[in-house]
Amino acid sequence: PITKRSSVVGQRSKMQPPTLHRQGFSILAISAMISCAHGIDSPRSISQLFGRAMAMGAMARSASSVAAFQSPRAQRVLRKHFPTPHQGSSYSRSSIRSTWGRHATSFGPSFSSQSSSLQQAPVASTGWINSDTLKLSETIPNSFNEIGISNKINDDDDNDAKIKYPSPSSVERLLIRDRLVYIKRDDVLHLPSSNISGNKARKFLSLNNIPACDFPDAIVSYGGPQSNAMLALAAIVSSKNAELTGEQRPLGEDDWLSSLEEEKKEEDLFWQLDVSEEEVNNGEKNENENNKTYKKVPSSSSTETINTKSPKKRFIYYTKTLPRYLRKNPNGNLLRALALGMEIRTVSHEEYATLFGGLNGGSVMAPADLDPPVPGRSLWIPQGGACSVAQPGSDVLAREIVDYWSCNGKGMPLAVVVPGGTCTTALLLQRSLNGVLERRRLEEKESLDIRLIVIPCVGDDKYAMRQMTSLDRSVGGKGRQEDMPWILKPKADAEYGSSRRRSKGYFSFGEPAKAILETFDEMNEEGLFLDLLYGAPAFSLLLQHWRSRVSDCPIAGRQVMYVHSGGLEGIASQLTRYKHKGLIDARRTQIA
To answer: Taking a C-beta distance cutoff of 8 angstroms, is the pair 317, 121 a contact?
Structure first.
C-alpha cells in the first residue's frame, strides 16, 4: 500500500525533474574531466568512473534527498559501488582479476581481531586507507637536536659505521676536484626493526614507526623489479610480522636477512612470480609444470612458514612482465624482497601503462580497477613513496640540515643537493626547509641561506617539475613554481653521445652508460661510494657545473652538501647489467 509519505515523495520527484537532470549532467561533466585528466580511455573504466561519481554525488546529499530523488538504478550502483574480493575485476586477463579473490580469504585476518585505532580511522570511499588518517610520527621528537654531539663535523676514518635512528646521520667532508663537499651520510642511517637505510629510511620513517597492532593488513605498491622502495616496504612489512610473532631481529646486523636469503636460494623463488598464459605459450612450455601456477604451495620441508601465523601483514607489488633471465634467476633487490615475503604481480607493458601511467607518472590514488585486498585495512603507496607518508621523515631531515649548518656553516650560503627519481624527497624536503627557516625567522634567530637543488635521474627537468607540482598539490600546496626546489640541468655546450643529445644531456634511467661508470670509479677513488642508478648519474651532472661561476648556476658561490640516498645494496645487480653491455668484465662484478 502507498503511504502518505511515499505519495509526498512522488509529488516532490515530479515537481523537480529539471534539478535532477542538472545534477546528472554535472556529474557526467565531472566524470569526463576526471577521465581526461587521468588519461582514461577504456570505455569500461569510464563507465565505472561515471557510476562511482553518481554514487559519490548521491552520498553527498542528505538522507532525505536520497530517499526522495534516488532512482532504483542509482540504488543498485550504491550497493555495488565496490566489488567484493570474490567478484574481482575483469580488467586484466588474469593477474589483476585473481589478485584479491585468491588471497583475501586465506591471508586476511578477521575484523574482530583488529586494532581499534585503524577500525575507527576514516577510510576513503574507494575502500583504501586514507594515509592522512594514519597516526604518523617521528617516534622520538627533538632527539636530533643534541648539537654538541650530533652536529659536529665527522672526518674520522670510521665513517661507514651504522647509525641508529633517532640519532641524526653523520656529515663528513671530502675534497673532490679541489672543492670541499659536505656528505650527509643517510646511507648509514638505519631504522629500528626493519633496518632500512638511506633515502627510504626518510620516506618510510613514519610507516616504520606504526606499531604492528595498528599497521595496515596490506600494503600495495608498484614500480620496477629492482626498486629500492620495493625492498624497503618489504622489509617494513616483514618486520611487523616478526613483531607480531615475537621473532627477534637485531638492529644493525644483516645476519637475519642474509640467512633468510640463503634459505630462499635453496628453494624455488619462481613460485612467487605471476606468469601469464601468453608467456607460457610463447616459450616457457619446457618449464616444469609445477612452476606454471600462480602460487605454488611450498613443500613440508620448506624453511619458510606461510599462512600459519595470524595475523599476517602482506605486501603486494605490481611490476611489468619480468625478463626471462630475471624470472629464472631473481637477484638484487628482487631476491631480497621475495625473501622477505613480498607477493609480486606482473602485468603486461600495456596494462601497466593503463593502470599506473599518465603525464605525471601515475596518481597518488589507487587505480580505479584495483580493489583493496582487505577492504578498509589496505594502504596504497604510490611508486617511490610519493605521498604524504614521506613528510615526517623529510621534516626530520630538514631540521638535521638546519641544525648542522647553524653550527658549522659560519654564515656561508649552502646548496643542498639531492638526486631525484619521483622527486618526492626533493619536494617534501623543500616544504620542510621552508617551514624550519620560517620558524627561525619568527624566533629571531640567525638567518640561513639554504637552497635545495634536485638532479633528475628519471626523465628530464620538465618531468621532474610535473612530478613535484602534482605531489605538492596532493599534500595541500598550490603547485607554484616558486615553491619548488631548483632543478640542475645538463650543460648545453657539453659533449654528449647521440643518445644523450636526443635526451638533452640526461641519462636514460637504468641504462648502462660509460659516463656513469667513469663517475662511479672516480668518486670511489675519492672515498665516496655511490650507486649506479641515482648517485653516480647525479654526480656526473653535478660535476659539469663544479667550477661554474655563472649567475644562473644554482651551486655557484655556495658550499655544497650532497645528501647520500643510499641504495648501495643494489650495486651488484647494477654492475651485472654493465657486464652484459660489455662495459666491465666478470671478475670486477664478483669483486663488487
So the answer is: no
